[in-house]
Amino acid sequence: MFMEETKENLRRVQAPAILIDWLLAQGMLASTGTAESEPDLIEAHKWFNLAVVKGSVLAAQYRQEISKEMCLRDIAEAQCRARLWLSSEVEERQDLVA
Questions:
Q1: What pLDDT, on the 0 to 100 scale, is given for residue 93?
Q2: What is the number of domains present in the chain?
Q3: Domain for residue 56, yes or no?
Q4: 66 occurs within a structural domain
Q5: What is the pLDDT at residue 32?
Q6: What share of the chain is helix, strand, coil (3-state, %, to 5)?
Q7: 2, 9, 54, 60: which has the fewest Cβ within 10 Å?
């Protein structure tokens, strides 16, 4: 019971603005690609989703826009990747508390 409460409390902690900005920037990079890489909408959706979870309204708009270009399977994959990232983040914070 305590571990579940701890996880929930960690999820509710307001993210620093710099983290939200970094997540949003990762989404922008993935959605537009670079000179070395093509756009990756699955990764972009993942990063935007993470920024939304941390409180970014702008990321929600970007996520909605790229979702229009994605199939349901790709959106599900992006959501799975975001959950994995969040679970690893919670584990890292728990290590700091322990």
A1: 57
A2: 1
A3: yes
A4: yes
A5: 95
A6: 80, 0, 20
A7: 2
